[in-house]
Write a structure and sequence with these properties.
The complex is a heterotrimer of chains A (about 230), B (about 725) and C (about 80). Chain B has about 725 residues and is an alpha+beta fold. Chain B is built from 26 helices and 28 strands. In chain B, helix 8 runs parallel beside helix 10, helix 10 packs antiparallel against helix 13 and helix 19 packs parallel to helix 20. About 0% of the residues of chain B have low confidence. The chains are: A alpha/beta (about 230), B alpha+beta (about 725), C alpha+beta (about 80).
């Protein structure tokens, strides 16, 4: 299985993603933001970081970079595109997934483990996972997902919400919402379910010495689903 | 502008220093030259008050590749790998503009590390604020934390450990000390020594603006009432550009184009060019019209003294300019050939085709002033006779509650949760432990680092305090299973022109030297920050020690959380009941006098090495050193982290229970072992003549302190975690 | 009464935000930009009906909290 990780000048989770993808069997290539062509890929990942310093709005400038036109075309033709953290912010700026990501509710960067509950499994990312609640890790300043009422109704009707912040038992309540996201949303899909944007970093949870191992479950399942 | 003595004094030079300059030059300097002298000769760059004493520190060792004198120290961690590390202060700017001051502090120390060819792998910090009640404290704390996070998070370097304290002596002078560790191959370390004639001198990074002109002089001046009116000397950090600079430099360093490289930190282009020339025993010629400037009409004086961030100076091999330029173009950074190395041994500056400065390099470095300042030796305070009757009124649970929730003991999670501590995917011990630990990427090795200071002990008796900080750093590394290798120090003091403050400096340094020598824990880098004072009042002497150690197999790393029910808990090291200067004495009894606990270096070494050997043999399930707050405080933290309780046995120790629980005797650790291993562990400790006592047994949810006193884990946790959250949200 | 204030970095202070936005616009083909400086805009509704007094109050806020005069300037742009 071939994957590509896009490196923007201020990406800083690109190596971590490369390590994770390779560990679980992907043949991964790093792709520079100024390139025009995307290598042949089964999965394209927009990694975390601060793509262009993110001084204006997170992800806004990255969404206009050269490689992104190819990524958008790839997504529109049905290719799998996953944006993690800053990658999610870039995805919303390109319009591939609906909504925006605002500053965290308490205006502070948050780095910690969280639990997320899977909503729909009718997509290549979470299909066949035998757990419904995963322990993931977040590290962001702008992860407060927001969309209009109409958009919300639409994404709910289409089963586009991928994961919600919850507690260990899977209860989705405001007190388990780290950043103020509407409806505790931690990740969403596009209508066609081939584009996923999420704030948590599965690539930081890939061995027992790190923050946990649920990231391993995610990647193992992902590569099996793509095969 | 005409230069005379008055102008020189306005530049922070002393009258006799100005006379010396004229004598060395055999003429009156022009304004640009005067600016250069004032920057190079001020305390921050010249170490004129401290050099004499810093010389006494042990800086060599088998594992030391590079000691003080370079951008950072370098130690060997085997297999061809090395760790580059240093700590540095950014105190004054952080007080004036907490976000930018702290951010640029973090940016500066990271540049020091990647200048040497190392990719930063971990950040740490030691931050000190005034009393929580002081009106500025909360804003300063929030700003500093946001600034540290803002810069480090954007760079994608995990912040893995730190220290925060509050003390009214920092009301008008907060301390922000930032430390960075970088990883490099031993054969790819870059230095700042220029070599060869007619080699191109290259400027890369951000453009030069009027930022922080005379920041280095500000760092060496104490604050007065008019601080708010000081000229804009605080720089704005741009972590995104620094990230680009890091990647571009490392890309260039992969080849063999660089002869020497130096970051432009304090005193910018001035100190970087002069240091490179001085180390190479060469001259340097710069055409200032070639320097990329952000503002129009910048003068030579401003260009030379600007402290714009995110800039580097490089001496390249001839013919490599195009290759290097391509790399910096790729990363969208400025690149300019601004001069060359010469054999004149002078620094020669040209602007609009005129020579605007010509100074022999040695006058700026070797001939810079060095002072043997007057200092007063501190007396060891008399021990306080504590009345045991006073203890009778105290309830242990109440005392414990007060200590665990004390602002200098309580959990600092509110702070470190705002730092990305897991990026790079190698953090195996997060903040909140004895040391932060990161794996050496792709290997079985891990590097542990901690940062410590004990201003109260240093204030009570500087010599003992200096020793204690080094010992505590050593213990924090051992507690996670790391073999301590070397330290970096950031020496924060009041005015060296005050005999008491100077005495504190001299004796703290002596204590640091003594301990690091005995523990074979040499000082490889550091920085001195004097004049941390407002009007006549200096801060408590606060040397911050950053320690680094190696864990050969990261699977053997130790954490402090209690692991398993029915395991035994022991204390290593003797509890004599030293209460003077303890948190208990200072906050519960309100007794602020007396000597700090004595540091017995033989015991420190013996206890620490014995614990390391027990860890090596796999006997230790959890460990934690005993420091501020004493034995019961340490046990409580192990309970909280492990979510387990403990049943303490009645101690056979003859001292009073209160003293047993809250004394701050040094050289002690708490360890958890399996009951079956007790015999073997006792044998090893006995053989090494290490004093130890059995404390109790791990149980489920509660901590039984004695027959009458029970505290639940939830209670302990709420004591420990609530204070800072409440304080910051009120 | 509503008073608006704009806070900008002082002229000689580096503005990383403005710089990167400038570069990005350049990359998108907007080549006719000399410089961009980014700032903050505040709309403050003060309990005061006298324009002069309202302005004074906001000026005071700007100098004490909203701006750090070490690196920033403020400008009261309108009152209504």
């Amino acid at each position: 299985m071939k994957s590509s990780v896009i490196t923007f000048p201020g990406s800083n989770c690109d190596r971590d993603m490369d390590v994770a993808l390779k560990k679980f069997g992907f043949n991964n290539k790093m792709v520079w933001h100024n390139d025009i062509e995307l290598p042949k890929s089964d999965l394209v990942v927009l990694p975390g970081g601060f793509s262009y310093g993110d001084y204006l709005r997170c992800g806004s400038m990255a969404s206009k970079s050269k490689i992104m036109q190819s990524v958008i075309n790839f997504a529109k033709s049905g290719g799998l595109v996953m944006g993690i953290c800053n990658g999610f912010q870039i995805l919303v700026e390109t319009g591939l997934v609906p909504g925006v990501l605002l500053r965290n509710r308490y205006l502070e960067f948050i780095c910690k483990n969280v639990f997320v509950k899977l909503d729909s499994k009718d997509n290549s990312y979470f299909k066949n996972l035998d757990k419904d609640i995963l322990e993931f890790h977040i590290a962001h300043n702008e992860g407060n997902y927001f969309c209009t009422k109409d958009q919300l109704k639409e994404i709910e009707d289409n089963n586009q919400i991928a994961i919600y912040y919850c507690n260990k038992e899977g209860q989705i309540e405001d007190q388990y919402n780290p950043n103020g996201s509407i409806k505790n949303i931690a990740g969403i899909l596009n209508k066609e379910k081939n584009v996923l944007g999420m704030m948590p970093h599965p690539e930081r949870m890939i061995d027992e010495s790190l923050s946990g191992e649920d990231g391993s479950l995610f990647f193992k399942n992902l590569i099996n689903n793509i095969k | 502008m005409l230069v005379n003595e008055k102008v020189a004094i306005e530049h922070g030079l002393k009258s006799d220093e100005y006379k010396k300059i004229c004598k060395l030059l055999k003429r009156t300097p022009n304004i640009t030259e005067l600016g250069i002298f004032s920057a190079m000769w001020n305390e921050h760059c010249s170490y004129k008050s401290s050099r004499l004493h810093l010389k006494k520190l042990p800086t060599k060792g088998k594992k030391v590749i590079q000691g003080p004198g370079e951008n950072a120290g370098v130690i060997d961690i085997e297999d061809g790998d090395a760790i580059v590390f240093k700590i540095e202060s950014h105190n004054h700017p952080s007080f004036i503009e907490p976000y930018q001051g702290a951010a640029t502090g973090v940016g500066g120390i990271m540049r020091d590390v990647f200048t040497m060819g190392a990719r930063p792998i971990a950040n740490l910090n030691s931050i000190h604020f005034g009393s929580p009640q002081h009106k500025k404290t909360k804003t300063l704390l929030r700003g500093v934390v946001h600034g540290i996070g803002g810069y480090g998070n954007c760079m994608g370097i995990p912040t893995i450990a730190g220290q925060t304290s509050f003390d009214s002596s920092y009301n008008g002078n907060i301390l922000v000390n930032a430390m960075t560790l970088g990883l490099v191959k031993k054969n790819k370390i870059f230095y700042s020594k220029a070599a060869g004639l007619n080699k191109p001198v290259i400027y890369v990074g951000s453009k030069t603006g009027r930022d922080g002109i005379h920041g280095a002089s500000m760092a060496s001046a104490s604050f007065d009432d008019k601080i708010e009116e000081k000229k804009p000397t605080v720089q704005v950090g741009d972590p995104f550009t620094e990230k680009l600079l890091l990647e571009a430099c490392l890309e260039l360093m992969a080849g063999d184009s660089i002869i020497a490289i130096q970051d432009m930190g304090a005193a910018g282009l001035t100190s970087s060019s002069i240091e490179m020339a001085s180390k190479g025993n060469l001259g340097i010629e710069i055409n200032l019209n070639k320097v990329p400037c952000r503002e129009s009409k910048m003068t030579p004086y401003e260009i030379m003294l600007s402290e714009s961030q995110e800039r580097m100076l490089i001496v390249l091999e001839n013919g490599k300019e195009d290759l290097a330029k391509k790399i910096f173009d790729k990363w969208n950074l400025d690149f300019a050939v601004i001069g060359k190395t010469t054999n004149s041994k002078n620094i020669e500056l040209f602007f609009d085709n005129e020579q605007v400065a010509n100074i022999p390099v040695n006058t700026l470095i070797e001939n810079s002033p060095m002072y043997d300042r007057k200092w007063k030796k501190a007396k060891l305070p008399k021990k306080i006779k504590f009345k045991k009757d006073d203890y009778k009124k105290l309830k242990i649970k109440e005392v414990l509650k007060k200590i665990l929730s004390h602002h200098n003991v309580c959990s600092k999670e509110w702070i470190w949760q705002q730092y990305d501590h897991t990026v790079m995917g190698d953090t195996i011990q997060k903040p909140g432990g004895d040391s932060g630990v990161v794996r050496v990427h792709g290997t079985n090795k891990a590097v542990a680092a901690s940062v410590d200071s004990s201003a109260v002990y240093c204030w009570a008796h500087p010599l003992t305090g200096g020793k204690q900080v080094v010992a505590e750093s050593w213990r924090n590394l051992i507690s996670v299973g790391a073999t301590p290798i070397a330290i970096t120090n950031c020496l924060n003091f009041g005015s060296p022109e005050n005999e008491d403050n100077m005495g504190e400096f001299v004796e703290c340094v002596e204590g640091i030297g003594e301990a690091s020598k005995y523990l074979n824990f040499p000082v490889v880098s550091g920085n001195v920050s004097f004049y941390n004072q407002t009007k006549e009042v200096g801060i408590k002497p606060t040397p911050s020690i950053g320690g680094v150690g190696l864990i050969k197999n990261y699977q053997n790393m130790i954490t402090m959380n209690f692991k398993e029910i029915n395991n035994l808990v022991l204390v290593i090291g003797k509890t004599e009941g030293h209460i003077d200067q303890s948190l208990f004495s200072r906050t519960i009894l309100d007794e602020k006098n007396g000597p700090p606990p004595e540091v017995n270096l033989f015991n420190e070494k013996n206890n620490g090495e014995s614990l390391l050997s027990l860890i090596g043999k796999g006997y230790i399930k959890s460990a934690h050193d005993i420091s501020l707050g004493g034995l019961l405080t340490s046990i409580s933290k192990m309970c909280i982290k492990g979510d387990k309780g403990i049943r303490l046995k009645k101690s056979k120790n003859l001292i009073h229970e209160i003293e047993y629980f809250f004394a701050e005797d040094q050289g002690r650790y708490i360890i958890e072992i399996k009951p079956d291993d007790l015999k073997e562990v006792s044998k090893i400790l006995d053989k090494n003549s290490v004093h130890f006592e059995e404390l109790g047994i791990i149980i489920e949810k509660d901590m039984f302190i004695n027959e009458k006193t029970k505290v639940t884990i939830d209670e302990l946790r709420s004591y420990n975690t609530n204070w800072l959250n409440k304080y910051m949200s009120s | 009464m509503k008073v608006s204030a704009i806070i900008t970095l002082k002229k000689d202070v580096l503005d990383p935000q403005g710089k990167v936005i400038h570069q990005a616009l350049d990359g998108m083909g907007f080549n006719n930009v000399n410089e961009i400086r980014q700032g903050k805009y505040f709309e403050i509704d003060v309990k005061e009906n006298d324009p002069k007094k309202a302005k004074e109050i906001v000026e005071n806020m700007c100098s004490k909290l909203l701006a750090n005069l070490v690196i920033e300037n403020y400008k009261i742009i309108e009152t209504q």
